[in-house]
Amino acid sequence: MNPIIISATEDTPGIKLDAASEVFEISGRSLPEDVVKFYKPILDWLDEYSNSPNSSTVFDFKLSYFNTASSKIILDILMKLEKISNITIKWHYPSDDEDMMEAGEEYSDIVDVPIEMVEY
Predict the structure, then answer these.
(1) SS3 50
(2) SS3 61
(3) Which tens digit of pLDDT belongs to each residue from 109-119?
(4) Which of 22, 30, 57, 111 is the most buried (most CB within 10 A)?
């Protein structure tokens, strides 16, 4: 399956979804003007990937900021990741960003897959 590589902008996160090189990452700021339009290809890709995932998957969230509309889509992504066996989800957050840490902890309480909190 074809990878999705999207460079980060001021308002949209960088996306790297590449099963062949085992890189699964969303990073940067997420406040796209049309959050559904921006994330639809990512959600579709994850649906396809979940049908035939790698033997193990490490998915990294390295977001520095996301708006309310993005928070719902992030939950949608996490719920798709729940369906993938042998998955590790890592939520990276700056040591001085309590809001981002709490966001990761709240997602961890909602989804039925452990989220590893990674402080940097």
Answers:
(1) helix
(2) strand
(3) 999 999 999 99
(4) 30
- Maximum pairwise Cα distance, the chain: 38
Token pair in block for residue 119: 């402080």
The β-bridge partners of 92 are 118
CB atoms within 10 A of CB 33: 9
Both structure tokens of 78: 């996490």
Q: How far apart are the first and last CA of the chain?
A: 32
Q: Tokens 């719902």 map to which residue?
A: 72
Give dist(CA 110, CA 115) in Å, integer. 10
The Cα 71–Cα 34 span in angstroms is: 13
| Residue spans of the chain under pLDDT 50 | none
State how far the Cα of 38 lies from the Cα of 70, in Å rounded to an integer: 10
